[in-house]
């Protein structure tokens, strides 16, 4: 098989499987009765830069021992094309963590729910500690988060972080009820949500204790990085630990976001409709 197999198709009698290898512009032909690759054909004129190809292969692949132990995990397993897998992972160093989207990351530092990465190159920490890779930086002595920069220490790491920074969010869904969204925007203003969720990205780039970090499983304190409000329709569940399955839950659960009893459920539903409309075109 080739690099980043994405599309598969069986022939009419199911004897052959065709696999599109997205990161090398080739087609693998596999004989299904013995799962043998019988041919590989070029199907496109690949014109991406070498740096982009290398970075994409690092992001989507798990065969490089620098990125993963035993070829078991890649960045794309949780963040395919920069998306969230919608899961909450229990075995993270800082405690249970909801997978975030990776869109427009250069606009929203710091990184991690705990806000303890000040650069995208701190992904080297996760490559080693979570994915079990040996790392892209040749020096085995790793700087701690918020310590000396990792950027500039490895061409491949720099290429990977530059590639991650290219992920942009999907086209927003059409607004079904403009009046409801407008009402929700008014509620957003009245409740002073923009005191933390400020600007176009919907974040003040700071950490706050909003009452969701009370579990003994939390290992990095009770303050969490303010998440962006963009693309919430594609990133459920919510909060650092995924404890809110829906946006309505965000505003009915105990904590700083609780609005039940302060405003009506109709107003809460309008607010969620507004949030699900972001970013507006």
Topology at a glance:
Elements: E1 5-10, E2 16-21, E3 26-31, E4 36-42, H1 50-60, H2 75-79, E5 88-89, E6 97-98, H3 123-129, H4 155-164, H5 178-190, E7 207-208, E8 224-225, H6 247-252, H7 265-275
Helix pairs in contact: 1-4, 5-7
Strand order of the largest sheet: 1-2-3-4
Strand content: 5-15%
Helical stretch count?
Answer: 7
The CATH H-level homologous superfamily of the largest domain: Cytochrome c-like domain
**CATH top level assignment of the largest domain:** Mainly Alpha
Average pLDDT confidence is 94
Secondary-structure class: alpha+beta
Please bin the fraction of helical residues.
10-25%
Task: Give the overall silhouette.
Answer: globular
Q: How is the CATH topology of the largest domain named? A: Cytochrome Bc1 Complex, Chain D, domain 2
Low-confidence stretches: none
Which CATH architecture of the largest domain?
Orthogonal Bundle
* Count of folded domains: 3
Number of strands: 8
Report the sheet with the most strands, covering strand number, pairing sense and barrel closure: 4 strands, antiparallel
Question: Which key terms come to mind for this protein?
Answer:
281 residues; alpha+beta; 3 domains
Task: Describe the protein in words.
- There is one protein chain.
- The protein is of the alpha+beta class.
- The protein folds into 3 domains: 5-42, no CATH class; 50-164, Cytochrome Bc1 Complex, Chain D, domain 2 (Orthogonal Bundle); 178-275, Cytochrome Bc1 Complex, Chain D, domain 2 (Orthogonal Bundle), CATH 1.10.760.
- 22% of the residues lie in helices and 12% in strands.
- The strands form 3 sheets. Strands 1-2-3-4 form a 4-stranded antiparallel sheet, with no helix packed on it.
- It is globular and about 65 Å long.
- The relative contact order is 0.12.
- The model has no long low-confidence stretch (mean pLDDT 94).
């Amino acid at each position: 098989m080739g690099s980043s197999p994405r599309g598969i198709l069986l022939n009419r009698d199911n004897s052959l499987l065709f696999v599109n290898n997205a990161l090398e512009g080739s087609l693998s032909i596999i004989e299904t009765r013995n799962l043998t690759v019988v041919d590989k054909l070029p199907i496109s004129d690949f014109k991406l830069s070498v740096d982009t190809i290398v970075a994409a292969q690092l992001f989507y692949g798990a065969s490089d021992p620098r990125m993963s132990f035993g070829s078991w995990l890649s960045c794309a397993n949780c963040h395919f094309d920069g998306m969230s897998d919608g899961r909450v992972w229990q075995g993270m160093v800082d405690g249970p963590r909801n997978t975030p989207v990776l869109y427009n990351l250069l606009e929203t530092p710091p990184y991690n729910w705990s806000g303890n990465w000040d650069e995208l190159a701190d992904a080297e920490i996760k490559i080693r500690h979570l994915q079990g890779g040996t790392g892209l930086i040749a020096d085995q002595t790793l700087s701690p988060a918020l310590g000396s920069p990792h950027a500039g220490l490895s061409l491949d790491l720099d290429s990977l972080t530059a590639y991650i920074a290219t992920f942009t969010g999907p086209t927003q869904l059409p607004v079904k009820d403009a009046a409801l969204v407008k009402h929700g925007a008014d509620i957003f203003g009245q409740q002073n949500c923009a005191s933390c969720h400020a600007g176009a990205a919907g974040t003040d780039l700071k950490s706050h204790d909003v009452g969701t970090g009370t579990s003994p499983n939390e290992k990095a304190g009770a303050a969490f990085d303010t998440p962006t409000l963009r693309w919430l329709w594609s990133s459920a569940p919510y909060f650092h630990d995924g404890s809110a399955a829906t946006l309505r839950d965000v505003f009915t659960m105990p904590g700083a976001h609780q609005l039940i009893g302060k405003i009506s459920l109709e107003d809460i539903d309008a607010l969620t409709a507004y949030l699900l409309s972001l970013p507006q075109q």
